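step 4 of 6: structure.
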Amino acid sequence: MSQVLEQLLNALVIGSFYALVALGYSMVYGIIRLINFAHGDLYMLGAFFGYSALLLLGKTFLGTGVTGILAAMLTAMALTGGLGVLVERIAYRPLRGSPRIILLITALGMSLFLENAVMVFKPWGASFRVYPVTLGRAGFDLFGVHIGYAHLAIFAMALFLMAGLHLFVEKSVWGKAMRAVAFDREAAQLMGINANRMISMGFFLGSIMAAAAGVMAGLYYGQINFLMGFLVGLKAFTASVLGGIGNLPGAMLGGMLLGVLEVFGTSAVGGQWKDVFAFGALILILVFKPTGLLGERTAGRM
Amino acid sequence: MNTGNVRSAGPGRGRLARTAGVVLLLAAAVALPFVSSSPYVLDVAILMLFYMCLALGLNVVVGYAGLLDLGYAAYFAVGAYTLGILTRTFHVNFWQALAAAGLFAMLLGLLIGMTVLRLRSDYLTMVTLGFGEIIRITANNLKITGGPTGIFGIMAPKVFGLSLGQPRNMYFVMLVLVVLTTVAMAHLGNSRVGRAWACLREDQDAAEAMGINTLGYKLLAYMTGTFWGGLTGAFFAVKMTAVSPNSFSFMQSVTVLMAVVMGGMGSVPGVILGGALVILLPELLRNVADWRYLVFGAALVLLMLFRPVGLWPARSGREREV
């Protein structure tokens, strides 16, 4: 029993990474109907920016304590956010209105480019990098379950970010404008909304969520690699489809569910089949309920 | 290689020049192993032929029918493994194993196609990617596929008395296969079925309204592509004398897709050019090997931005816009 609870905590931590990355997929899809293939790589880049920031900031007064980690995370989020906007500006915006297959191939090329740019960049490189800070095992026991403070902190941080994003999109004027563009771009433009700026904002918000997840994953797993974004990107896409793509609460729910499915699936049939769960789930959802759990859009567009 | 619109080519000088070009190219291809005795050149040439074959197969799926498949390497793998397992473990003769490899890949294509081809393009892409990974992971973990080490010691068969263990013989067999594939694919593209695919690719709803059985034609395109992938995979297993899961990664699918996109989706001469380029360019970039996929990625993006129809498109830009 206690083991199940401990695994559940792990599942929620991993699930929150998926959920954060899934938010970006969902948001971008909601606004411009593009599956941004390069989104998983923004998560990877976030992890690398966080890695370098921790190395650099660790030498200053900030240290590698909580403040240092938060500062590194904010740095990574800002840099990745800017990069996400840049990617949209350079590669996707000129192709708006082209056939979807062209956009999809562009996104694929962008993903390859980002991965390999990190690989050939000397300070980062192709091998696994060990994160400069590792999480302590300190924590408390609850009903015989060891609960690490660090795990709780990661989970809380993820929830905080998701709640913040949710409030921003639902309550702020900017969020409202963004939703208007997602709903009907032309009508929104007629009402005086700068659609390009809103699309950039969607990319920015998605990218900073992915970057935060990347830094947290680096802290959680202890090592990062230039290919780490590929699988997570696919799984996060699965998560957003699971919840209903284009639906932000759905992306969060989907991420958590996928984390649980994966952790318990692994303990049931072994780690080497782990990745099959996500892909299997993706195929089953798309075949039987392509609108996802919380999605409302009709299947007419399929 | 004569796929372009036959009507617009007409019987005039253009067609004559094209025929002359094809004859010259073929003559050069036949002469190559006699001109150069370097094993390296022959090896690269064989690899180019493999990628031309794969690109021609994928072109049916992506170029003709407009279904973006990112798991094509899976069928290549299924063909290679089928041949490996049948000849190595069950001692089936080469021709039967070859047929089985193509058919088995096609059967898998049918099964997967039936489940996913109802999906819209971008969802379809992700699902094919997922299936590609599932097949790779499966090959990595099953006993019959030899796990991560794969299957090795695949014997080179004799084809018409010639051992395929000889690189020069392998080269000619592949050349014949490419020529046959080219002719078949060009005819397929211009046939009634090919026109139905084009219609489907341009506007699925309109195609459906015109009474085209969209799912059926998509399946047909998918199965043609997967059959060709499997067949090529079987030859690949013979050439390498070994099969391992690492040869069938996601990057493999991307490389073949790159060949199709770079050359020009739906254009037979284009994808042949593309198949040659995806092998030739990395070879030329060999001393900066780390940069290979960086260049690939950038090239894909730039190509889509500035020339989305590819280097040798199926039709002229003007006609395409109409």
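step 5 of 6: annotate
 - The two ends of chain A are 43 Å apart (CA to CA).
 - Residues 298-302 of chain A have pLDDT under 50 and may be disordered.
step 6 of 6: archive
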